[in-house]
Amino acid sequence: MSVTIKKIAELSGVSRGTVDRVLNNRGNVHPETAERVRKVAQQLGYSPNLAGKALAVRKKSPLFGVILPSEGNAFFDDVIAGIRNAEAELRDFGVRVEIRTMRGFDPTRQLKLIEEFEDRISMLLLVPINDVRIAEKIGSLKEKGIPTIALNTDIENSSRLCYVGSDYKKSGEIACGIMALLTGGRANFGIATGSFRMLGHSQRIAGFHSVMKARYPGLKMLDIIETNDDDIQAYEETCRMLRNHPDMDAIFIVAGGVYGVCRAVIRSGYEERMTIVSFDDIPTTVEMVERGIIKATICQQPVAQGYLAVRKAFDYYISGAEPETDRFILGNEIKIRESLVDIDK
Amino acid sequence: MSVTIKKIAELSGVSRGTVDRVLNNRGNVHPETAERVRKVAQQLGYSPNLAGKALAVRKKSPLFGVILPSEGNAFFDDVIAGIRNAEAELRDFGVRVEIRTMRGFDPTRQLKLIEEFEDRISMLLLVPINDVRIAEKIGSLKEKGIPTIALNTDIENSSRLCYVGSDYKKSGEIACGIMALLTGGRANFGIATGSFRMLGHSQRIAGFHSVMKARYPGLKMLDIIETNDDDIQAYEETCRMLRNHPDMDAIFIVAGGVYGVCRAVIRSGYEERMTIVSFDDIPTTVEMVERGIIKATICQQPVAQGYLAVRKAFDYYISGAEPETDRFILGNEIKIRESLVDIDK
DNA sequence: TTGTATGCGTTATCAA
DNA sequence: TTGATAACGCATACAA
Predict the structure, then answer these.
(1) Which residues of chain A are modeled with pLDDT < 50?
(2) A34: which nucleotide lies closest, measuring CA to C1'?
(3) What's the number of CA atoms in the CB half-sphere (13 Å) around residue A7?
């Protein structure tokens, strides 16, 4: 049979209560006794039983707070679906999840949202804005006993418990690889990024370039524009870029604004000759894949991201043990028309 | 608060034991009482609490039996890894998993393996061979109270609880789509299938053809060979096929024998001009992707297959409720060199 | 500082 | 046919 608190209590000649105090560092126990108990637990290789723990923890009904920049951003619909899946699975364990949404990437706004429920939550799940004030807030929350999990985007120099999301550099590498395959390794391409200030976007571009440099000398970059994840801006900028570079025959869309870029390409009459690689599979992107204008789109498993973040939050809440790794990376999946659209459609 | 057996007991004026007997159909309860209890449970929308259930069920220490045709088949290494992951997660709930392996697809052998532990297991997870005797065995096991989950491959006309695996037809469709993208829609290709008798292999070919017919008139099939998932046979047959069709410029590898096919292509001096699409990412396949001879390989998330099958087994064991769907389909992922190999390598 | 008692929700055993 | 009670492993309020 497995090792339980009861068994440790017997073998070290104390009560179950004392073992509990020792193992959970609740204080009020004689150092010698504590030492003895710890040793026995160590020797027996004790690890708390989840089923028991879950049942006991249930009445505390822990609340997980989630903050997403999801307003006006269809990508997060799938993340939310994953969060809801996990919430349903954990309901029997007393877990509740509260999601707050915001529009855009304003640190002040994000701080305010955090403060709105920080005195009620046991865990924070956050798509963090890369700003010192957010990093500091994560630190002060940690001191108050509220760990933070970075979701979808990581934040530097912070004390977040772990990161759940994709590997942005890798996704850029894959984007370059697939573009090379689709163009036979010869293309004059443009880049449409979201924002130069977004770490993930820059990492994708860096990944793209490193593969290009190492393996595909026939790929030549002509121009780069910023869409700010906005379809209108994407449309305008792309029209301008295409006017300036009539020899452009491929576009690498790094982030949002996919629909705007594609509409500009169609408008300019370059639909046929253009090879476009994008990210994610929000409905408007799927539409463009179906139409054939986007040849491949690289997806980051948003549902799994939401699900896993909540599960990892629960694991930590229940066990108090540091995660096995501080980065849980979900794979980048290449999707083409046949992946996304039913054949008979 | 949520609905518990205790609450139902109070409201229907009986003891918790009686409620348990009614809700779990253990018999020995007056029809009228049963009716009353059932009605209350119904009205309150009772659903058993998993944490409590897990704790109580723990001492029964259920054993899940798994049978895999994994000997000499590297694909199943990942499936096994997924099974082990799930086993570790469920250890605290008393679950144990016993894996039996076999070589090849002999129904008699599989029957024998089932019979070796069928009197000890609570659930069977099986990569079923599509044979009436196996289907019948699944039926008789069900009558004995042992449900079977079909893993990786489904079995027709059987009473298996559910299927966990990929959509083979869809994976064939994607294979055609990616081949068309890689060849600009113009290719004279050959097919190397595993076995004409394997349902999954035929479904992949069917999927390939349906997309080809609907969308890519420039793809022309020249020949088809059988590898029986054996590298030597694959090598021999491919050499022969290439001799017979010197104009072949693409190959669709449907199943195993990937390494053999690729070696034959290299041997014949067609490495440069050939576009090869394959399945899965076992080490030898990754090697060929790295070398650039395979342009894309379509993977079916073997780790997730193993993991999910065990989880679904547990869910059913714990809840006794029919799964939400009888087919749990894991997505087909297109992988290219940059997906599989580190850039700095 | 330590021990005891009780509860979380379900299941199983024993007695009535 | 039914009810009462103990058990699973952990947490905690309360008593000593």
Answers:
(1) none
(2) C1
(3) 14
Structural contact between residues B339 and B297, judged by C-beta atoms closer than 8 angstroms? no
Segment A160-205, tens digit of pLDDT: 999 999 999 999 999 999 999 999 999 999 999 998 888 899 999 9
Contact A334 B334 (CB under 8 A): yes
- Tokens at A144, concatenated: 């108050």
CA distance B133 to chain A (A): 35
Are B124 and B196 contained in the same domain? no
Number of domains into which chain B is organized: 3
Q: How far, in Å, CA of A257 to CA of A152, rounded? A: 18
Are residues B254 and B228 in contact, defined by beta-carbon separation less than 8 angstroms?
A: no
> How distant is C1' of C12 from CA of B56, in Å?
9
- A209 and chain B: CB distance < 8 Å anywhere? no
Domain region containing A274: 168-300+336-340
Whether residue A146 sits in one domain with residue A40 = no
Token pair listed for B188: 């004279």
CA A148 to CA A64: how far, in whole Å?
Answer: 10
Average pLDDT in the B163-191 region?
98
State whether residue B61 is helix, strand or coil: coil
Query: Would residue A108 count as lying in a domain?
Result: yes
Residue closest to B222 by CA, chosen among B187, B269, B196, B189: B189
Q: In this structure, are B203 and B238 located in the same domain?
A: yes
Angstrom distances, CA of residue B226 to CA of B128, B253, B255: 21, 10, 10
Is the CB of A15 within 7 Å of strand C? yes
In angstroms, the CA A206 to CA A175 distance is 11
**CATH assignment at residue A31:** 1.10.260.40
pLDDT tens for residues B103-115? Answer: 988 999 999 999 9
Q: Is residue A345 part of a domain?
A: no
Residue B54 Cβ < 7 Å to strand C: no
Out of B51, B182, B296, the one facing A54 most closely (by C-beta) is B51
Chain A, window 113-142: residues with a beta carbon less than 8 angstroms from a chain B beta carbon:
none
Distance between CA atoms of residues B259 and B232, nearest Å: 9
B171 in contact with chain A, both atoms CB, cutoff 8 A = no
In a domain, A206, yes or no: yes
B20 touches strand C (CB under 7 A): yes
Min Cα distance A44 → chain B (Å) is 16
CB contact under 8 A, B338 and A181: no
Same domain, B156 and B172: no
Question: Do B138 and B157 contact (CB within 8 A), yes or no?
Answer: no
